[in-house]
Amino acid sequence: MRTEQPKVIHLKDYQAPDYLIDETHLTFELFEDHTLVHAQLVMRRNPQLGMDLPPLVLDGQQLELLSLSLDDHLLTPAEYQLDDSQLTLQPPHSEFVIDSSVRIHPESNTALEGLYKSGSMFCTQCEAEGFRKITYYLDRPDVMSKFTTTVMAEQQRYPILLSNGNPLASGADDQGRHWATWEDPFMKPAYLFALVAGDLWCVEDSFTTMHQREVALRIYVEPENIDKVQHAMDSLKKSMKWDEEVYGREYDLDIFMIVAVNDFNMGAMENKGLNIFNSSCVLAHAETATDAAHQRVEAVVAHEYFHNWSGNRVTCRDWFQLSLKEGFTVFRDSQFSADMNSATVKRIEDVAYLRTHQFAEDAGPMAHPVRPDSFIEISNFYTLTIYEKGSEVLRMIHTLLGAEAFRQGSDLYFERHDGQAVTCDDFVKAMEDASGSDLTQFKRWYSQAGTPRLSVSDSHDAQAGTYTLTFKQSCPATPGQSEKLPFVIPVELGLLDSKGQPLALRLQGEAQATGDNRVLSVTEAEQSFTFVDVAEKPLPSLLRGFSAPVKLSFPYSRDQLMFLMQHDSDGFNRWEAGQQLAVQVLQELVGQQQRGVAMAMDERLVKALCSVLNNEQLDPAMVAEMLSLPSEAYLTEISEEADVEAIHAAREFARKRLADDLFEPLWQRYQDARVQSRKQAYVAEASHFARRALQNMALSYLMLTEKPKVLTACLEQYEACDNMTERLTALAVLVNSPFEAEKAATLANFAERFKDNPLVMDQWFSVQAASTLPGGLERVQALMQHPAFTLKNPNKVRALIGAFAGQNLINFHRADGSGYRFLADLVIQLNALNPQIASRQLSPLTRWSKYAPERRQMMRNELERILASGELSSDVYEVVSKSLV
Ligand code: TRP
Ligand code: ZN
């Protein structure tokens, strides 16, 4: 906890490290009430900076220094300076060895950063700056070292002792303690260090690399979870193969390990050779994990594995470059998921998520560029902007250069920078050099924050047979950036004639048409493109596949949107047309609600969704996506000033109308799918995901009609299904229904059935926290008293508090401000336990500028109250103080 004003760190102040650490030898003695860490650092002056010997400043926090030697000479306190974050001493020569011993307390570490205990297991989380809570060190990513690690612990309690790299030796003493030594041959920064000790079981497999090397694969879990590991193992093997085939990347150690832990601040961590995962991102079994959870496991396993190259072999020079590894790795895992499942559905999910959440971040007080200029607490910058927008930036490079040149660029990047700590500029340079293109202007995507707006207009000259599209781009001001320069915006597009057929595309000045789909590069504030040989006025299909993360507007009529829904050859844009139609219809309903006139819904939405529902040719997963109306959070994001009640009322009204009017086709498709689900045992595979997605989407509409036969079907599905996807949806729709007796009985049944499975109980909490029926806050408060709930477990906090404040907008934004007060109280409590989690839970309050004055004021008051509540962590301080300007 800080007392004085926290320091702001600026990218422009970057300086190379004065000293290097060639070797790091660590010994951990783990005990129940403390841990001893002995570190031997083989160091030298950074030869690039001269031969003088400036003071050596090591990072260290919450460490009790027991002894310190320099070249075997024990130092007295007079020979070094120590404060609560640094240890400073004077090196005698340009090469020297430091030995330190410190005492730390993993057993009481609730921040889950550094070395900590999750249940009975010891584990670490060092990214971004957690290693300094383990030993005195140069805890920065551009200091790379060769690590050897010895772990010593009681044999009975901790039979498994793991660290990075390959196992070197092990042994036992006669006091019931044993040890193991691991050696990692690759130079790595300290944030990739990991240690695990516990009573774990593992599933073992192996992978033969492209050069015929055998790699042992092990996934370690607590014994009771050993039956839930196969899906992660399959995902790992698929990832290893895919990275060889698509990026030419081969694994480099003899062993690759994953360990699942229950208490973890994020999804997972790519520590070299020893990935540590939130158990929610490893464990998957039909009966306990939904289809979405299965897909998340596959994606996160891939993400962390891909980091072995994009992050570990080539790492970041400093934390401002975080998106260098995260944006690239998210892009890689999204390509992988697209290849493993339905590419269009994956793109739809990613875009819906980006537009709802990243766009909101980019429009709020924490908005920052993909490469930030400054931060107070780096943990606050593991954001949707760094990850998701960062991935979009890479996707645009891929679109502009083409797949082949992009691959050459990535090959060059990995070859040129293997073993180095580099910058986003280095990455772009490799892309430029390999492709011969100039990305100078494109790089504004790294430095300018905010979501660009792109408004498009068109005109047709029948006489000349020309069709002109005019693009105007602008970008709103964001904190610290009032003026923005034009971006390079790749706009993938096609033109449809009046029969829905694609037109051959030929721009003025081109000798001939080239295909019916192309990418225009919009680079100026205002820019026109004229197509020739266009006899009749076409309908443009713009920004296909969401080719750039912008807010596009084009004055489509509702009939034109319905036409695109039917005829566009781009699957993503068919969905997008449906979403835009729904947005228009919903916004009209919101307006009616606000004016106090009875809501009347445009029939065309019913008609459009009816034909989607009757289209047997369409992938059922696409049908489900097209049936799902834009979320309240998205409708909020696109509003100037969001009217919480009107948005909720309008959307619910539309859902009920659709359920009533489309009852028959919904019922038909539900029944067909349910029959299939009953016949076929669960398979975690795209066509099965698709069937269940449609089945569950249909059920959630059908239940709104409150018909007895739907209730019966829902209860039958709950009881008779063999998987969590069907069971959880049945529970969720009951929880949102007025059938109180069935709801209570089913909730009780579910809790009894799964009381021993914390991840399933998380789902049980979430479903209730997200229920938009009145009284949501009281329900959440009651659930906090449930024996399975604890504020110390991040998954529990996310399941209950996160789901309530993030998804249950109508209850969280209750007009009396009690939702805000509740969240602020929790943040104050969490601040003392786990600053990273506290700061993340805060984000709904930072969105105050979207709401009407009374709500704004109440939200700001709660932020003020947090600020005045006492000693804040730098994490919470940064978000609260930036949100209040
Ligand atoms: N690098 C991790 C990833 O793959 C992110 C991460 C895991 C993290 N745990 C963390 C970041 C704790 C900050 C704090 O995305
Ligand atoms: Zn990552």
TrEMBL record:
Domain Peptidase M1 membrane alanine aminopeptidase per the UniProt entry, residue ranges: 232-445
Pfam families assigned to the protein according to its UniProt record, in alphabetical order: DUF3458, DUF3458_C, Peptidase_M1, Peptidase_M1_N
Protein's UniProt keywords contain Metal-binding: yes
Entries under InterPro entries matching the protein: Aminopeptidase_N-like_N (IPR045357), Aminopeptidase_N-like_N_sf (IPR042097), PepN_Ig-like_sf (IPR038438), Peptidase_M1 (IPR001930), Peptidase_M1_dom (IPR014782), Peptidase_M1_pepN (IPR012779), Peptidase_M1_pepN_C (IPR024601), Peptidase_M1_pepN_C_sf (IPR037144)
Domain of life (superkingdom): Bacteria
Protein keywords: Aminopeptidase, Hydrolase, Metal-binding, Metalloprotease, Protease, Zinc
EC number: 3.4.11.2
UniProt cross-references to SUPFAM superfamilies, sorted A to Z: Leukotriene A4 hydrolase N-terminal domain, Metalloproteases ('zincins'), catalytic domain
Domain Aminopeptidase N-like N-terminal: residue ranges: 109-192
PANTHER family linked: PUROMYCIN-SENSITIVE AMINOPEPTIDASE
Family the UniProt entry places it in: Belongs to the peptidase M1 family.
Name under which the protein is recorded: Aminopeptidase N
